[in-house]
Protein backbone atom coordinates (compact mmCIF):
# COMPACT_ATOMS: atom_id res chain seq x y z
CA UNK A 1 0.00 0.00 0.00
CA UNK A 2 1.39 3.38 -1.01
CA UNK A 3 0.75 6.63 0.84
CA UNK A 4 2.21 10.12 0.63
CA UNK A 5 3.02 9.97 4.33
CA UNK A 6 2.91 7.12 6.86
CA UNK A 7 2.88 8.07 10.55
CA UNK A 8 3.97 5.66 13.26
CA UNK A 9 1.99 6.36 16.44
CA UNK A 10 -1.54 7.66 17.05
CA UNK A 11 -1.00 9.85 20.11
CA UNK A 12 -1.32 13.63 20.13
CA UNK A 13 1.64 14.25 17.82
CA UNK A 14 0.80 11.54 15.29
CA UNK A 15 -2.84 12.55 15.08
CA UNK A 16 -2.19 16.28 14.76
CA UNK A 17 0.46 15.65 12.08
CA UNK A 18 -2.00 13.39 10.27
CA UNK A 19 -4.85 15.89 10.46
CA UNK A 20 -2.75 18.79 9.14
CA UNK A 21 -1.26 16.74 6.29
CA UNK A 22 -4.65 15.32 5.30
CA UNK A 23 -6.11 18.83 5.33
CA UNK A 24 -3.30 19.84 2.97
CA UNK A 25 -4.49 17.17 0.52
CA UNK A 26 -1.97 14.43 1.29
CA UNK A 27 -2.80 10.72 1.46
CA UNK A 28 -1.89 9.73 5.00
CA UNK A 29 -1.95 6.53 7.05
CA UNK A 30 -1.39 6.32 10.81
CA UNK A 31 -0.36 3.01 12.38
CA UNK A 32 -0.89 2.90 16.14
CA UNK A 33 -0.27 0.11 18.63
CA UNK A 34 -2.59 1.21 21.38
CA UNK A 35 -2.85 3.55 24.32
CA UNK A 36 -1.09 6.89 24.12
CA UNK A 37 -0.21 9.42 26.81
CA UNK A 38 -3.53 11.13 26.01
CA UNK A 39 -5.37 8.23 27.65
CA UNK A 40 -3.66 9.24 30.92
CA UNK A 41 -4.01 12.99 30.44
CA UNK A 42 -4.86 15.50 33.14
CA UNK A 43 -7.34 17.18 30.81
CA UNK A 44 -4.86 20.06 30.41
CA UNK A 45 -2.30 20.70 27.70
CA UNK A 46 0.99 22.16 28.88
CA UNK A 47 3.08 24.55 26.78
CA UNK A 48 5.69 25.47 29.35
CA UNK A 49 4.62 25.45 32.98
CA UNK A 50 7.71 25.11 35.15
CA UNK A 51 11.35 26.08 35.07
CA UNK A 52 13.74 24.76 37.74
CA UNK A 53 10.81 23.95 40.01
CA UNK A 54 9.23 27.42 39.72
CA UNK A 55 5.89 28.10 38.04
CA UNK A 56 6.12 29.96 34.75
CA UNK A 57 3.56 32.70 34.19
CA UNK A 58 4.32 33.64 30.58
CA UNK A 59 5.29 30.50 28.64
CA UNK A 60 6.40 32.16 25.40
CA UNK A 61 8.88 34.39 27.25
CA UNK A 62 10.36 31.35 29.00
CA UNK A 63 10.52 29.33 25.76
CA UNK A 64 12.52 32.10 24.08
CA UNK A 65 15.25 31.63 26.71
CA UNK A 66 15.63 27.83 26.43
CA UNK A 67 18.96 26.23 25.48
CA UNK A 68 19.67 25.24 21.86
CA UNK A 69 19.29 21.53 22.72
CA UNK A 70 15.57 21.95 23.49
CA UNK A 71 13.15 20.83 20.72
CA UNK A 72 11.34 24.19 21.00
CA UNK A 73 14.53 25.91 19.85
CA UNK A 74 14.59 23.81 16.67
CA UNK A 75 10.99 24.83 15.98
CA UNK A 76 11.95 28.47 16.60
CA UNK A 77 10.14 31.08 18.68
CA UNK A 78 8.64 32.85 15.62
CA UNK A 79 7.07 29.62 14.37
CA UNK A 80 5.87 28.75 17.89
CA UNK A 81 4.26 32.18 18.32
CA UNK A 82 2.34 31.50 15.11
CA UNK A 83 1.48 27.83 15.78
CA UNK A 84 0.16 28.27 19.32
CA UNK A 85 -2.66 30.50 18.02
CA UNK A 86 -3.84 27.74 15.70
CA UNK A 87 -4.18 24.98 18.29
CA UNK A 88 -7.40 25.99 20.06
CA UNK A 89 -9.33 26.39 16.74
CA UNK A 90 -7.89 23.11 15.45
CA UNK A 91 -9.00 21.30 18.61
CA UNK A 92 -12.45 22.91 18.33
CA UNK A 93 -12.79 21.66 14.74
CA UNK A 94 -12.15 18.17 16.07
CA UNK A 95 -14.70 18.66 18.87
CA UNK A 96 -12.30 19.32 21.75
CA UNK A 97 -13.40 22.54 23.43
CA UNK A 98 -10.73 24.19 25.56
CA UNK A 99 -10.02 27.41 27.40
CA UNK A 100 -6.70 29.08 28.20
CA UNK A 101 -4.13 31.29 26.52
CA UNK A 102 -0.51 31.09 25.45
CA UNK A 103 -0.03 34.64 26.77
CA UNK A 104 -0.40 33.57 30.40
CA UNK A 105 -0.73 30.14 32.02
CA UNK A 106 -3.82 29.37 34.07
CA UNK A 107 -3.93 26.79 36.88
CA UNK A 108 -5.65 23.40 36.89
CA UNK A 109 -6.87 21.70 40.04
CA UNK A 110 -5.05 18.35 40.31
CA UNK A 111 -6.51 15.12 41.74
CA UNK A 112 -4.59 15.74 44.97
CA UNK A 113 -5.94 19.23 45.50
CA UNK A 114 -2.92 21.20 44.29
CA UNK A 115 -2.78 23.72 41.46
CA UNK A 116 -0.47 23.34 38.44
CA UNK A 117 0.12 25.67 35.49
CA UNK A 118 -1.49 24.83 32.14
CA UNK A 119 -1.88 26.33 28.68
CA UNK A 120 -5.20 24.89 27.44
CA UNK A 121 -7.69 22.91 29.51
CA UNK A 122 -10.79 21.02 28.42
CA UNK A 123 -13.70 23.40 29.03
CA UNK A 124 -15.51 21.59 31.82
CA UNK A 125 -12.44 21.00 34.04
CA UNK A 126 -11.79 23.03 37.20
CA UNK A 127 -9.24 25.80 36.61
CA UNK A 128 -8.50 29.25 38.02
CA UNK A 129 -6.62 32.27 36.75
CA UNK A 130 -4.48 32.34 39.89
CA UNK A 131 -4.38 29.83 42.74
CA UNK A 132 -4.19 32.50 45.42
CA UNK A 133 -7.65 33.82 44.62
CA UNK A 134 -10.15 30.96 44.35
CA UNK A 135 -13.56 32.11 43.11
CA UNK A 136 -15.63 29.08 44.15
CA UNK A 137 -17.01 30.00 47.61
CA UNK A 138 -18.38 26.93 49.45
CA UNK A 139 -17.58 23.78 47.50
CA UNK A 140 -19.45 20.45 47.41
CA UNK A 141 -17.24 17.63 46.17
CA UNK A 142 -19.59 14.92 44.95
CA UNK A 143 -18.42 11.44 43.98
CA UNK A 144 -20.09 8.21 42.85
CA UNK A 145 -20.31 5.55 45.58
CA UNK A 146 -17.55 2.98 45.10
CA UNK A 147 -15.54 4.96 42.55
CA UNK A 148 -12.04 4.70 44.03
CA UNK A 149 -9.88 6.50 41.47
CA UNK A 150 -10.89 9.89 42.86
CA UNK A 151 -9.87 11.23 46.28
CA UNK A 152 -12.33 13.89 47.49
CA UNK A 153 -10.58 14.27 50.86
CA UNK A 154 -7.26 15.22 49.19
CA UNK A 155 -9.01 17.82 47.08
CA UNK A 156 -10.89 19.16 50.13
CA UNK A 157 -7.63 19.43 52.09
CA UNK A 158 -6.02 21.45 49.29
CA UNK A 159 -9.00 23.77 48.96
CA UNK A 160 -9.38 24.20 52.72
CA UNK A 161 -5.71 25.18 52.98
CA UNK A 162 -6.51 27.82 50.35
CA UNK A 163 -9.33 29.13 52.57
CA UNK A 164 -12.44 27.45 51.13
CA UNK A 165 -14.92 25.30 53.02
CA UNK A 166 -15.85 21.96 51.49
CA UNK A 167 -18.46 19.26 51.97
CA UNK A 168 -17.94 15.69 50.74
CA UNK A 169 -20.89 13.74 49.37
CA UNK A 170 -21.48 10.66 47.27
CA UNK A 171 -24.43 8.90 45.68
CA UNK A 172 -25.33 6.01 43.48
CA UNK A 173 -27.90 5.21 40.81
CA UNK A 174 -29.45 1.87 39.84
CA UNK A 175 -27.52 2.01 36.54
CA UNK A 176 -24.19 2.21 38.44
CA UNK A 177 -25.01 -0.60 40.87
CA UNK A 178 -24.33 -3.20 38.15
CA UNK A 179 -20.78 -1.85 37.87
CA UNK A 180 -20.34 -1.79 41.65
CA UNK A 181 -20.82 -5.56 41.91
CA UNK A 182 -17.17 -5.83 40.88
CA UNK A 183 -14.79 -3.07 41.94
CA UNK A 184 -12.78 -3.61 38.74
CA UNK A 185 -15.83 -2.53 36.73
CA UNK A 186 -16.28 0.72 38.68
CA UNK A 187 -13.78 2.52 36.44
CA UNK A 188 -13.93 5.89 34.70
CA UNK A 189 -14.67 4.70 31.17
CA UNK A 190 -17.40 2.31 32.35
CA UNK A 191 -19.09 5.02 34.40
CA UNK A 192 -18.93 7.36 31.39
CA UNK A 193 -20.68 4.74 29.25
CA UNK A 194 -23.55 4.58 31.75
CA UNK A 195 -24.05 8.32 32.31
CA UNK A 196 -25.73 9.18 29.04
CA UNK A 197 -29.30 9.95 27.91
CA UNK A 198 -31.95 9.98 30.63
CA UNK A 199 -29.43 9.02 33.33
CA UNK A 200 -27.96 12.53 33.10
CA UNK A 201 -31.21 13.96 34.50
CA UNK A 202 -31.02 11.49 37.42
CA UNK A 203 -27.40 12.51 38.13
CA UNK A 204 -28.37 16.20 38.07
CA UNK A 205 -31.23 15.60 40.51
CA UNK A 206 -28.91 13.86 42.98
CA UNK A 207 -26.21 16.53 42.61
CA UNK A 208 -28.71 19.36 43.20
CA UNK A 209 -30.05 17.54 46.28
CA UNK A 210 -26.60 16.84 47.78
CA UNK A 211 -25.00 20.20 47.00
CA UNK A 212 -26.91 21.85 49.91
CA UNK A 213 -25.77 25.42 50.41
CA UNK A 214 -22.60 25.02 48.30
CA UNK A 215 -21.81 27.70 45.73
CA UNK A 216 -19.85 25.36 43.45
CA UNK A 217 -19.87 21.63 42.74
CA UNK A 218 -16.80 19.57 41.85
CA UNK A 219 -17.11 16.05 40.46
CA UNK A 220 -14.72 13.44 39.04
CA UNK A 221 -14.15 13.83 35.29
CA UNK A 222 -15.83 10.59 34.29
CA UNK A 223 -18.56 11.86 31.98
CA UNK A 224 -18.51 12.28 28.19
CA UNK A 225 -16.34 9.55 26.69
CA UNK A 226 -17.06 10.12 23.00
CA UNK A 227 -17.99 13.81 23.02
CA UNK A 228 -18.81 16.55 25.52
CA UNK A 229 -22.61 16.52 25.00
CA UNK A 230 -23.35 14.59 28.26
CA UNK A 231 -21.15 17.08 30.12
CA UNK A 232 -22.91 20.10 28.64
CA UNK A 233 -26.32 18.60 29.42
CA UNK A 234 -25.39 17.85 33.02
CA UNK A 235 -23.99 21.33 33.54
CA UNK A 236 -27.24 22.81 32.19
CA UNK A 237 -29.30 20.72 34.60
CA UNK A 238 -27.21 21.34 37.72
CA UNK A 239 -28.43 24.51 39.40
CA UNK A 240 -25.00 26.01 40.22
CA UNK A 241 -21.52 26.05 38.66
CA UNK A 242 -20.23 22.49 38.14
CA UNK A 243 -16.63 21.65 37.26
CA UNK A 244 -14.78 18.37 36.85
CA UNK A 245 -11.48 17.30 38.37
CA UNK A 246 -9.19 14.81 36.65
CA UNK A 247 -9.05 11.35 38.19
CA UNK A 248 -6.46 8.64 38.39
CA UNK A 249 -6.13 6.97 34.94
CA UNK A 250 -7.87 6.17 32.75
CA UNK A 251 -8.66 9.74 31.85
CA UNK A 252 -12.09 10.19 30.29
CA UNK A 253 -11.20 13.70 29.04
CA UNK A 254 -7.98 12.37 27.53
CA UNK A 255 -9.72 9.43 25.89
CA UNK A 256 -12.38 11.80 24.56
CA UNK A 257 -9.60 13.98 23.06
CA UNK A 258 -7.96 10.98 21.40
CA UNK A 259 -11.29 9.74 20.01
CA UNK A 260 -12.22 13.21 18.71
CA UNK A 261 -8.85 13.67 16.96
CA UNK A 262 -8.96 10.17 15.51
CA UNK A 263 -12.49 10.57 14.19
CA UNK A 264 -11.59 13.97 12.71
CA UNK A 265 -8.54 12.51 10.97
CA UNK A 266 -10.67 9.71 9.49
CA UNK A 267 -13.44 12.14 8.47
CA UNK A 268 -10.83 14.14 6.56
CA UNK A 269 -9.96 10.97 4.62
CA UNK A 270 -7.02 9.63 6.64
CA UNK A 271 -6.43 5.90 7.16
CA UNK A 272 -6.03 4.84 10.80
CA UNK A 273 -4.68 1.34 11.44
CA UNK A 274 -5.76 0.79 15.04
CA UNK A 275 -4.10 -1.85 17.18
CA UNK A 276 -1.29 -2.57 14.74
CA UNK A 277 2.44 -2.21 15.46
CA UNK A 278 5.24 -1.26 13.10
CA UNK A 279 7.97 -3.88 13.39
CA UNK A 280 10.72 -2.71 11.03
CA UNK A 281 11.55 -0.73 7.92
CA UNK A 282 13.68 -1.02 4.81
CA UNK A 283 15.93 1.90 3.85
CA UNK A 284 17.83 2.42 0.59
CA UNK A 285 20.72 4.84 0.92
CA UNK A 286 19.44 7.81 2.90
CA UNK A 287 15.72 7.10 2.27
CA UNK A 288 13.25 4.95 4.17
CA UNK A 289 11.36 3.03 1.49
CA UNK A 290 8.79 0.90 3.31
CA UNK A 291 7.74 -0.34 6.70
CA UNK A 292 6.11 -3.54 7.94
CA UNK A 293 3.54 -4.16 10.65
CA UNK A 294 2.42 -7.12 12.75
CA UNK A 295 -1.07 -7.32 11.24
CA UNK A 296 -0.15 -6.65 7.62
CA UNK A 297 2.63 -9.24 7.63
CA UNK A 298 4.42 -9.27 4.25
CA UNK A 299 2.25 -6.47 2.91
CA UNK A 300 4.41 -3.34 3.01
CA UNK A 301 3.44 0.27 3.68
CA UNK A 302 5.47 2.52 1.41
CA UNK A 303 5.47 6.32 1.38
CA UNK A 304 7.35 9.40 0.25
CA UNK A 305 7.74 10.47 3.87
CA UNK A 306 7.54 8.80 7.24
CA UNK A 307 6.90 10.43 10.61
CA UNK A 308 7.97 8.68 13.80
CA UNK A 309 5.50 9.66 16.54
CA UNK A 310 5.92 6.61 18.73
CA UNK A 311 6.30 8.38 22.08
CA UNK A 312 8.84 7.94 24.83
CA UNK A 313 9.46 5.09 27.30
CA UNK A 314 5.83 5.10 28.41
CA UNK A 315 4.61 4.14 24.91
CA UNK A 316 7.65 1.98 24.01
CA UNK A 317 8.85 4.51 21.44
CA UNK A 318 12.12 4.45 23.39
CA UNK A 319 13.22 1.40 25.36
CA UNK A 320 15.94 0.42 27.79
CA UNK A 321 17.69 -2.79 28.79
CA UNK A 322 20.39 -3.05 31.48
CA UNK A 323 23.12 -1.81 29.13
CA UNK A 324 21.54 0.46 26.53
CA UNK A 325 18.76 2.82 25.61
CA UNK A 326 17.43 2.25 22.11
CA UNK A 327 14.76 3.04 19.56
CA UNK A 328 13.14 -0.37 18.99
CA UNK A 329 11.71 -0.20 15.45
CA UNK A 330 14.53 1.13 13.28
CA UNK A 331 17.51 1.24 15.67
CA UNK A 332 17.77 5.02 15.22
CA UNK A 333 20.52 7.02 16.91
CA UNK A 334 19.95 8.09 20.51
CA UNK A 335 22.40 10.16 22.49
CA UNK A 336 22.57 8.43 25.87
CA UNK A 337 25.49 7.24 27.99
CA UNK A 338 26.07 3.49 28.17
CA UNK A 339 26.68 3.68 31.91
CA UNK A 340 23.35 2.91 33.54
CA UNK A 341 24.06 4.88 36.71
CA UNK A 342 24.21 8.06 34.62
CA UNK A 343 20.61 7.60 33.42
CA UNK A 344 18.93 8.45 36.69
CA UNK A 345 19.29 10.36 39.93
CA UNK A 346 19.25 8.41 43.19
CA UNK A 347 16.66 10.84 44.57
CA UNK A 348 13.45 9.92 42.78
CA UNK A 349 12.11 13.49 42.92
CA UNK A 350 15.15 14.98 41.18
CA UNK A 351 15.60 15.59 37.45
CA UNK A 352 16.45 12.22 35.84
CA UNK A 353 18.71 12.30 32.78
CA UNK A 354 16.76 9.51 31.05
CA UNK A 355 13.72 11.75 30.77
CA UNK A 356 15.65 13.78 28.19
CA UNK A 357 16.74 10.86 26.03
CA UNK A 358 15.17 10.52 22.62
CA UNK A 359 16.04 10.03 18.97
CA UNK A 360 18.71 12.29 17.51
CA UNK A 361 17.56 14.56 14.67
CA UNK A 362 18.97 17.25 12.43
CA UNK A 363 17.62 20.81 12.53
CA UNK A 364 14.64 19.80 10.39
CA UNK A 365 13.67 16.97 12.82
CA UNK A 366 14.90 14.31 10.36
CA UNK A 367 16.06 11.22 12.23
CA UNK A 368 19.58 9.81 12.14
CA UNK A 369 20.83 6.25 11.85
CA UNK A 370 24.48 5.34 12.30
CA UNK A 371 25.39 9.01 12.18
CA UNK A 372 23.61 9.68 8.84
CA UNK A 373 20.40 11.62 8.34
CA UNK A 374 17.47 9.73 6.84
CA UNK A 375 16.25 12.27 4.30
CA UNK A 376 12.53 11.38 4.32
CA UNK A 377 11.92 10.33 7.92
CA UNK A 378 11.01 12.79 10.67
CA UNK A 379 10.44 12.48 14.42
CA UNK A 380 7.84 14.43 16.43
CA UNK A 381 6.56 14.57 19.99
CA UNK A 382 7.74 12.59 22.99
CA UNK A 383 10.11 10.33 20.99
CA UNK A 384 12.36 13.39 20.62
CA UNK A 385 15.04 14.01 23.17
CA UNK A 386 16.26 17.27 24.63
CA UNK A 387 13.69 18.09 27.32
CA UNK A 388 12.07 16.72 30.45
CA UNK A 389 8.49 17.50 29.57
CA UNK A 390 7.20 16.15 32.88
CA UNK A 391 9.30 18.59 34.92
CA UNK A 392 8.58 21.43 32.48
CA UNK A 393 4.86 20.69 31.97
CA UNK A 394 5.60 21.07 28.26
CA UNK A 395 4.54 17.64 26.91
CA UNK A 396 1.55 18.64 24.80
CA UNK A 397 3.29 21.79 23.59
CA UNK A 398 6.36 19.90 22.39
CA UNK A 399 4.11 17.30 20.70
CA UNK A 400 2.05 19.99 18.95
CA UNK A 401 4.81 22.44 18.01
CA UNK A 402 7.19 19.79 16.62
CA UNK A 403 4.33 18.19 14.66
CA UNK A 404 3.29 21.50 13.13
CA UNK A 405 6.90 22.28 12.22
CA UNK A 406 7.49 18.89 10.60
CA UNK A 407 4.24 19.19 8.63
CA UNK A 408 5.43 22.59 7.33
CA UNK A 409 8.85 21.09 6.52
CA UNK A 410 7.26 18.26 4.53
CA UNK A 411 4.80 20.53 2.71
CA UNK A 412 7.61 22.92 1.79
CA UNK A 413 9.54 20.15 -0.04
C1 LIG B 1 1.23 9.13 31.71
C2 LIG B 1 1.44 10.44 31.03
C3 LIG B 1 0.54 11.49 31.23
C4 LIG B 1 0.75 12.72 30.60
N1 LIG B 1 -0.14 13.73 30.82
C5 LIG B 1 0.04 14.91 30.22
C6 LIG B 1 -0.88 15.98 30.42
O1 LIG B 1 -1.85 15.85 31.16
N2 LIG B 1 -0.65 17.16 29.79
C7 LIG B 1 0.45 17.34 28.98
O2 LIG B 1 0.63 18.43 28.42
N3 LIG B 1 1.33 16.34 28.76
C8 LIG B 1 1.15 15.15 29.35
N4 LIG B 1 2.04 14.13 29.12
C9 LIG B 1 3.16 14.34 28.19
C10 LIG B 1 2.87 13.65 26.82
O3 LIG B 1 4.05 12.97 26.52
C11 LIG B 1 2.56 14.63 25.71
O4 LIG B 1 1.55 15.51 26.14
C12 LIG B 1 2.00 14.01 24.42
O5 LIG B 1 0.70 13.50 24.65
C13 LIG B 1 2.90 12.98 23.79
O6 LIG B 1 2.31 12.60 22.57
P1 LIG B 1 3.04 11.67 21.50
O7 LIG B 1 2.06 11.46 20.43
O8 LIG B 1 4.35 12.25 21.14
O9 LIG B 1 3.38 10.29 22.25
P2 LIG B 1 2.40 9.21 22.89
O10 LIG B 1 1.19 9.83 23.42
O11 LIG B 1 3.24 8.43 23.81
O12 LIG B 1 1.94 8.30 21.65
C14 LIG B 1 2.76 7.40 21.01
C15 LIG B 1 1.91 6.38 20.28
O13 LIG B 1 2.76 5.59 19.47
C16 LIG B 1 2.33 4.26 19.54
N5 LIG B 1 3.44 3.37 19.18
C17 LIG B 1 4.60 3.14 19.84
N6 LIG B 1 5.35 2.22 19.19
C18 LIG B 1 4.63 1.88 18.07
C19 LIG B 1 4.85 0.96 17.01
N7 LIG B 1 5.95 0.19 16.95
N8 LIG B 1 3.91 0.85 16.04
C20 LIG B 1 2.78 1.60 16.08
N9 LIG B 1 2.52 2.48 17.08
C21 LIG B 1 3.43 2.61 18.07
C22 LIG B 1 1.87 4.10 20.99
O14 LIG B 1 1.02 2.99 21.14
C23 LIG B 1 1.17 5.44 21.22
O15 LIG B 1 -0.17 5.35 20.84
C24 LIG B 1 1.87 12.90 29.75
C25 LIG B 1 2.76 11.84 29.54
C26 LIG B 1 2.56 10.64 30.17
C27 LIG B 1 3.54 9.53 29.92
UniProtKB/TrEMBL annotation:
It holds the Pfam family FAD_binding_2. One of its GO terms (molecular function) is glycerol-3-phosphate dehydrogenase (quinone) activity. Residues 4-398 form the FAD-dependent oxidoreductase 2 FAD-binding domain. Its EC number is 1.1.5.3. The keyword Metal-binding does not apply. InterPro entries: FAD-dep_OxRdtase_2_FAD-bd, FAD/NAD-bd_sf, G3P_DH_GlpB_su. Keywords: Flavoprotein, FMN, Oxidoreductase. It is an enzyme of class 1 (oxidoreductase). It comes from the Bacteria. GO terms for cellular component: glycerol-3-phosphate dehydrogenase (FAD) complex. This is Anaerobic glycerol-3-phosphate dehydrogenase subunit B. It comes from Muribaculum gordoncarteri.
Amino acid sequence: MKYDIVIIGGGLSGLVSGILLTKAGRKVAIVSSGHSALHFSSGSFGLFGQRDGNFVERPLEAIAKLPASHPYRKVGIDAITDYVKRVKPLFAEAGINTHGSEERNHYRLTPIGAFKPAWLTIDDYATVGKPDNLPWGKVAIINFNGYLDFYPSFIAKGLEEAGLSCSLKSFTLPELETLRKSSTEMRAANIARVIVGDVIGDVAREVNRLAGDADTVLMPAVIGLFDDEPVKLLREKVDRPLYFVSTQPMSVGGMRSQIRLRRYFKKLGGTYLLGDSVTNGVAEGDRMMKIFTVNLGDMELSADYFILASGSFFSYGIMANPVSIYEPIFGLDIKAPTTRSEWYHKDIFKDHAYMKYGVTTDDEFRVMKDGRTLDNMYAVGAVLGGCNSMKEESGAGVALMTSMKVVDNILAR
